């Protein structure tokens, strides 16, 4: 039974990152194969809808800071500190995911987008709604993960003591949500070399654009560690660890750049995942509705992993292809 795992497009060109952008895992053997398709999914039982055009908050706003001029060097630690300050006191945030071309234009015709929301707390709580045909939806409530398994047309709840295959399944679909957590983005920014690109408009919100560069090894390590802190240990899956190690060995010294856009109070309003080399497009996430209350609902009638596999096998779908999903 093949399960499609997903890593961020961030390192689709170099291998693993954040558990799995199209890494195929079989029941007895695991092979990590990179793909150019982007990660997308979340709760089909409830929708956060499209993102709004303003970044508002019901919590007290942090102090506004003046934006550095374009071309100014700003340490990644300073930028990460601004993001963390912007997060403080916020109950939750919504997001919208898409793809941008090399010029920064949003591509919606070739890649299905996704949307969702986070509660800014631990254990991980949120939902990821896939608006593409893949229907890879995920709901996580206090660390308990549910995923929509398209081939069996049912929701699957992760067990307390998952088998190796179920752990791969769970990790993949928890990762696609956890990797977008603003707290994880802050971890990735920290330690990098930043530069202000000046002011930008993000769906009507005035923001400062920062480009932050670091090595592939540092970005991967920081993202993986940040995700583990907030409920998704992607390296607990042996095939992910193998892919991670080989990528670090092969490409760890290469430089990649990620982009973040912060409003005057330090709130993250847009994040473009790292890119480098010959990459011509990247995943882009827009954050809105800071301060939103996020209380996802567990899908009704969620089945066990074995029940879902049994149904898929009985319907002639023992080997789900791209788009199979469960957590």
From TrEMBL:
Leader peptide range in chain numbering: 1-18
The species this protein was found in: Calidifontibacter indicus
Biased composition (Polar residues): 105-114
Organism lineage: Bacteria, Bacillati, Actinomycetota, Actinomycetes, Micrococcales
Lineage top rank: taxon: Bacteria
Bias type Low complexity, positions: 29-72, 311-327
Name the UniProt record assigns to this protein: Lipoprotein
Gene3D superfamilies: 2.50.20.20
Region described as Disordered: 27-76, 90-131, 290-327
Swiss-Prot/TrEMBL keywords: Signal
């Amino acid at each position: 039974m093949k399960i499609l795992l997903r890593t961020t497009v961030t390192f689709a060109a170099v291998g693993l990152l954040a558990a799995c952008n199209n890494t195929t895992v079989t029941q007895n053997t695991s092979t990590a194969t990179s793909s150019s398709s982007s990660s997308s999914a979340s709760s089909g039982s409830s929708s956060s809808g499209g993102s709004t055009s303003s970044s508002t908050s019901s919590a007290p706003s942090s102090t506004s800071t003046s934006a550095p001029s374009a071309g100014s060097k700003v340490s990644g630690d300073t930028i990460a500190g601004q993001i963390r300050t912007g997060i403080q006191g916020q109950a939750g945030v919504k997001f919208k995911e898409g793809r941008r071309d090399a010029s920064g234009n949003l591509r919606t015709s070739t890649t299905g987008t996704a949307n969702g929301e986070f509660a800014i707390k631990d254990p991980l709580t949120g939902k990821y709604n896939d608006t593409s045909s893949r229907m890879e939806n995920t709901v996580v409530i206090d660390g308990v993960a549910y995923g929509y398994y398209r081939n069996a047309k049912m929701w699957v709840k992760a067990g307390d003591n998952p088998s190796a295959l179920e752990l791969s399944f769970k990790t993949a679909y928890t990762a696609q949500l956890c990797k977008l957590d603003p707290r994880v983005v802050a971890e990735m920014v920290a330690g990098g070399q930043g530069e202000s690109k000046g002011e930008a408009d993000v769906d009507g919100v005035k923001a400062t654009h920062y480009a932050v560069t670091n090595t592939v090894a540092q970005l991967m390590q920081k993202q993986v560690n940040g995700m583990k802190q907030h409920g998704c240990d992607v390296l607990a899956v042996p095939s992910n660890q193998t892919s991670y190690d080989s990528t670090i060995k092969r490409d760890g010294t290469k430089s990649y750049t990620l982009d973040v856009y912060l409003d005057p109070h330090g709130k993250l309003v847009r994040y473009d995942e790292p890119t480098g080399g010959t990459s011509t497009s990247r995943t882009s996430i827009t954050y809105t509705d800071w301060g939103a209350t996020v209380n996802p609902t567990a899908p009704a009638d969620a089945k066990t992993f074995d029940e879902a596999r049994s149904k898929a096998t009985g319907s002639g779908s023992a080997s789900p292809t791209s788009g199979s999903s469960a957590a």
